[in-house]
Amino acid sequence: MGRDVVFVSVLALLAIWYNPVCSETADLELLHESDSQHHSIWTRKELANGSKDSQGHCMWYGTCNDCEYAYNYAYQGDAMPIGETDLQALESVCPELFDQFGPEDEPLFCCDSRQINDLIVNFGQALNLVGRCPSCARNLRMIFCSMTCDPHHSRFLAYNTTQEHTITPEPITNSTVVVKALNYYIDDTFVTEMYDSCKEVTNPSSNSLVMPTICGQWGEDCSPHRLLDFMGQGMSNGGFSPFDIYFQYIPDGEPVPNPDVIEAFDPQAVPCYEAISNTSGSCSCVDCSGSCPKPKPWPPLPQPWTVGSMYGVSFVMMMVFIAVSITFLVTVFWKWHVDRVVMLDDGLETISRGWDSVGRRLAGAATHNLSLPALDDEVEPLHQPKTTATPTSATQTSSGQGPAQHPNSHSRGVKRRSLQPTISTTSSTDSQYEYVQGSFMERAGASMEKALESFFTEWGTFCARWPWMVLIFGLSVAAALTVGVIYLEVTIDPVELWAAPESRSRQEKDYFDKSFTPFYRTEQVILHAENIPGFDYETLSGTKRFGPAFRLDFLLEALHLQHDIEAIIGDEMNTTLGAICYKPMLPDVDECTIQSVLGWWQGREDYLLKSVVGTTNGYNYTYLDHAIYCSKNPLMPYDNNFKWVNETTGTLEQIGCLAEYGGPAFPYVVLGGFRNGENESVSDESLYMNATALILTFIVNNKADKDLLGPAKDWEKKFLEYMKYWKENKMPGYMSVAYMAERSIEDELTRASQSDVVTIAISYCIMFAYIAIALGQARSFSRLLVDSKITLGIGGVIIVLLSVVASIGFYGYVGVPATLIIIEVIPFLVLAVGVDNIFILVQTYQREPRRANEKHEEHIGRIVGEVAPSMLLSSISEAFCFFLGALSGMPAVKAFALYAGMALLLDFLLQMTCFIGLFSLDTARQESNRLDICCCVQVGKKSDPKDAVAAEGALYKLFQDAYAPFILSKPMRAIVMVVFFGWLCVSVALTPRVEVGLDQELSMPEDSYMLDYFAYLAKYLSVGAPVYFVVKESSYNYTDQRAQQKLCGGRGCDTDSLVTQIYLASKNKSRSYIAATPASWIDDYLDWFRIYECCKVNGNTGDFCPAFQPDPFLDCVECDKTFIDTEKLWPDTRTFNNWLPTFLIDNPCELCPKGGHAAYGQALVYNGSQENLTVGANYYMTYHSILRTSKDFYSALIEARVISDSISETLSAVANSKVEVFPYSIFYVYYEQYLTMWRDVLISLSISIAAIFVVTFILLGLDIHSSVVVLITIIMILVDMFGLMYLWDITLNAVSLVNLVMAVGISVEFCSHIVRAFAVSIEPTRIARSKESLVRMGSSVLSGITLTKFGGIVVLAFAKSQIFQVFYFRMYLGIVLIGAAHGLIFLPVLLSFIGPGVNRHKLYLKNRILGGMSPSPTQILNYPQFSDIPREGRDDEIHRHNANVDVHRETDVAAASHPPS
Asked: In the beta sheet, which residues pair with residue 1131?
């Protein structure tokens, strides 16, 4: 607002003016059309062909020089001739008066030279405001030109009041009577048509209409009658006319009630959309909607696709769910029925019950007669293997020998894949098998798995053997990286966080800041009246209702607060407001821009308390009358009712509506709460006096170089401190206050992070405590402190956090700035991954005791070799997921991805070094029976590792004995698949309805003063943010007439010009979000040329003469200017270039309201001077309509770009080269991200998921089947997260995008360990492999991620920051619960249906190493676990046992081939 200060002149007298003027004729030829149509002004009634009395005569002639006011002398006689100079002067301002004379007629008029000059100078000031519209100017001047000089006065004028004045008679007529009041009989239809032609004329520099300005106290309530009544109000009654003019409005066709008057004044009005002559143009579209072309219809907004009353996507997903679910259930139950028939025929009904282990054991007696294919098909009915998957030998095929098949199995179309080895016919024993080597991919996968396990086994053994060396080395490297934290830069600037440097809005902001000046800093206070009612006030026009904000005590308190704020001095740099504020009128006015209703009283208490008694009506004018006046006329430099003689100095004082800084205080900016729920059809202007709030806005200069903002921030800090003190100690009870400074959001974001340090610390402490306790598995109460893992747990957590700090330090060295979101989110992410790995490693060690002749370090190495590939899979896939996520253009997301990827990589490396060393030390302590924490205390003899038994915790046993059999039972598998598919369908239907955006309130702490400010802003806001349409520097020729016509919006401008297009958009503000016509520097510059008082130079020195400076010696003459057209609308190149710099430093005033310093001093960049001057970047400013939601903000950006693109095409067509126009507003850079949010989300998530898929495929031994399963599960988790976001009111924005990318990473933890365990299992059926993987890894996943995180997440619900509550508590909880549900419920069931088959090459290797032999009966006796199994089922059980042998370790092979005796 501060940049858009404008001055407008006070209305000059519209008849005969009070002050004498020089006889110099003003150049108002712009209002004269050289080839005007020759016609009588009496177009509706011809002059009577009778006596001179019937034709009319003069009513006055000459002006009284020594009267109190400039009264005219009464004269009832014939019109008189005037001199040639006066004729030319009169024709320049009133050309229509000459139309009634023929070529041979001598023009005769009822006015002398003095009256003509007064009319030209003073009425010309009024015409300057409406001269943009030729027809308006013509219709308006017809009224006053005819009243002043028409030779037929008596036809429509009559005396109302006259007075003898014998002191100085009129020298020509010798009249001694002056006219004090006049009756003007005028046709009412003409008055209405005149007003209609003028009511839309605009003042470009103030984005306001002219009519409210020249309608006096009526302002926006102006009407045809009120306009003329105000103009005719005499000075003796507080008006502007030297005498009273009483307009008598005669309806069309009715006679004049005065018999002395022939008829009403009734010329033909020219509509604004018509030209007044053949050479003149009509009013422009901006000033006359009738001149506008039919606007192109706005493209319809996209409507949601519906089927009936249901969203289309929801309908489709409902149909998909029904169809797929029915197909799935029918297929499953049919397959189960077929397999059940097969098993019933073989007496194996009980084996189909996956949860009945007893039945399965009892059925073992018959399994030798039933081939494994039948059993495998029963538990995996939907699996359709490849034809090459059945391993049968040639001998078997040719001889007809092989596994027993049910005779009806093939007839039922049941295809089976046998995991049973081929029975050789050449073997000497009936239990010898042959295994095929498998496909190339299976062989490559097995080789890769063997290499990984071997490497990690050796590495784990090394680390366990040399724990202290590994610890010291690992910690030293981590510490060295951590030192980089001292070089770290933390970015808190929202622009740097959320706007990519290459984004369009960021580039446009940088261009705007560089070309002009950065958008100013705003400090604002909103004062609201509490518990005090409005009141009624009697005015001259009746009772007026005022809101409580206009109570005198309320205004005085606001004034005192304003003065206190102005007096604030910063603590650190002694900064004053005057040193940093924006002063648009420097050097002429050294005052700060303060937008405040108190500016209507120039910020003075004595003016606010002043009352003036009217000299004629005796009415007592108070501050309320002045408030009414200024609310309707904020541009008026003075209120004629408020003038008085200072009793002390004897000087005349007067109150105007312009604030101390010389600019207006628009009511829609300084008043609030006046709508109070009023219907939108009611205009703001009629409600201003209902205000319940006052808004004080202090404008401070901004700097492109942030290092130069120290003084401003110093003052703002003190301002915020004072407002807090004032609110707590000085604010009266009838007030409430909300306030903000430019630095407030940045400060509160920092405070929000700091305020929740305790909450976050408690959250992490809960997780640490759980980890420390849950890792230990005490075998007895006496060994509680020995078997506990508190030290190990804390050490593991420290290692995890050290990886985070080391990652931050690494990027500190590199120079990648960090963000607060990194510090808040990454520890959570890395802790989830790291703790899960810790639980898997420790619990696997606890479940697998040391083998015979196995050393301590070998035991740990074997466990590491077993679980490290799974840890590698999850860590590397997540790290690559985040590293590729750094391809995002959003700085905050990019920084998060880089830091998270490095933290995960370092965490894995530290766990593979430091944690293994720490784990080795802790297990040695435990074996030595030393206490945890107090490791020096030994409570017994050292334990023999051979005596250790597998420690299966309660959770593991729960999974093994209850949960896994239950979830993998037939009915539960079907239910799980249907329920999760239904969940997916619902989430898909809800995903498009997730809202995009981030309400700024959510980013603030719950106790932030900014929440009150945001609430007040939404409740009391009356206008939107300024928006600038910037024309970038180009080859556009601004001196060319055609180029100017494509920019301007006034007279002679094109209907598709820049200003006109924006104006037309403002007519549909609900769609365009544009509220007003733009302030146009080129329109005001062209008008500046046309106004005589604007462009003057000293005739002696050649210096420019500003209109606001007095010219006592009359040295100033009109400047040298040349136009290329007869109407003097378009200056030539020399004139345009010479005077442009002068226009930009000329202050507006009442004589020249078009000076461009205040409004356009910073709106235009030019290079060179005079003839070599070229115009560079420039802007046209308007306002957005009220914007309240995120959708409003980014929709406003979209529509503004649509408008600017259209303007660019228009200007480019004229320039024959590319001319770029872009819109800029302060909020665009923050909200542009939402225009492409869905695209950015999909790209970021797709990249992350693709990275995980590739890494999973490689590290799972080129197993694409397992990789697809992982991919499906992660996608389902993400889609279900979107469904949760809709249901829990979580919007899609940069913060939630970071969390979704993190969700991809954490989802890997829920999936990869279980899928890998399934892939490496050699159990004969999918259900068996699914059960084994769920039991082995599920309990660790549940305890390592789900339970660990759940306790910490719940604490976040109590955070003070709303962003923590919504985007961290809700989303984190959703990530953990949805991930756990899919990983522990859905994934095992999915694997039981479509999981990958067993790697046959592994079976081949095991069989080859073991010699393909089953143990002899003697050996069987030495397998106690098989001793109670009947001989017929013993081979299958021993086969399963041998399948568990690790073929990569010779000790396992030896143990299997030669069982212990």
From this structure: 1123
Report the distance separating Cα 582 and Cα 591, nearest Å: 8
Q: Exposed, middle or buried by CB within 10 Å (0-12, 13-18, 19+), for 820?
A: middle
What does the pLDDT average to over 438-460?
80
Helical (H) or strand (E) element with 761: helix 757-774
Contacts of 422 (CB under 8 A, 6+ apart): 391, 392, 393, 396, 402, 433, 434, 435, 436
Give the strand pairing for 244-250 and 177-187: parallel
pTM: 0.77
Is residue 1010 packed enough to be buried (19+ CB in 10 Å), middle (13-18) or exposed (0-12)? buried
Closest CA to 1270 of 745, 907, 873, 806: 873
| Cα distance between residue 425 and residue 1316, in whole Å | 36
Sign of CA dihedral 849, 850, 852, 858: positive
Q: Which two tokens stand for residue 326?
A: 């029915």
CA distances from 192 to 130, 153, 198, 1297 (A): 16, 22, 10, 60
The two three-digit tokens of residue 19, written as one number: 């002050």
Contact (CB, 8 A) for 1018 and 1188? yes
Q: Which residues pair with 526 in a beta bridge?
A: 695, 738
Q: Are 407 and 365 in contact (CB under 8 A)?
A: no
What gap in Å lies between CA 44 and CA 42, rounded to an integer?
6
Residue with tokens 């902001």: 509
Between 1211 and 782, where is the model more confident? Answer: 1211
Of 1066, 1057, 984, which Cα lies nearest the Cα of 284?
A: 1057
The per-residue pLDDT for range 538-549, each reduced to its tens digit, is 988 788 899 999
Write out the two tokens for 1002.
Answer: 């959510």
pLDDT of 938 reads: 65
Distance CA 745, CA 1146 (A): 37
Q: What is the CA radius of gyration of the chain?
A: 45
| Inter-CA distances, 846 with 31, 926, 952, Å | 100, 12, 7
- Integer angstrom CA distances of residue 926 from 766, 781, 942: 25, 15, 9
- Secondary structure of 1260-1310 as H, E, C letters: CCCCHHHHHHHHHHHHHHHHHHHHHHHHCCCCECHHHHHHHHHHHHHHHHH
What is the pLDDT, as a whole number, of residue 1039?
A: 93
Residues 6+ apart with CB under 8 A from 1216: none
- The Cα-based distances of 792 to 63, 768, 771, 951 in angstroms read 107, 11, 9, 17
CA distances from 660 to 58, 816, 897, 1244 (A): 47, 48, 52, 53
Taking CA atoms, 416 is separated from 405, 1126, 1296, 1327, in Å, by: 10, 98, 47, 15
pLDDT at 791 over 70: yes
Q: For the chain, what percentages of helix, strand and coil (3-state, to nearest 5) are there? A: 55, 10, 35
pLDDT, one tens digit per residue, over 901-916 is: 898 899 889 989 998 9
**Taking Cα atoms as reference points, which of 1175, 1262, 1261 lies closest to residue 1219?**
1175
| Cα gap 1352→880, rounded to integer Å | 27
Q: Nearest CA to 571 among 756, 727, 672, 713?
A: 713
* SS3 (DSSP) at 1068: coil
Tens-digit pLDDT profile for residues 1424-1444: 444 444 444 444 444 444 444
| 818 DSSP 8-state letter | E
Q: Say which amino acid occupies 2.
A: G
Q: Which range among 374-388, 625-639, 740-754, 1106-1120 shows the weakest confidence by mean pLDDT?
A: 374-388
pLDDT average, residue stretch 1072-1083: 90
Tokens of 449: 């798995």
Structure tokens at 880: 């690559």
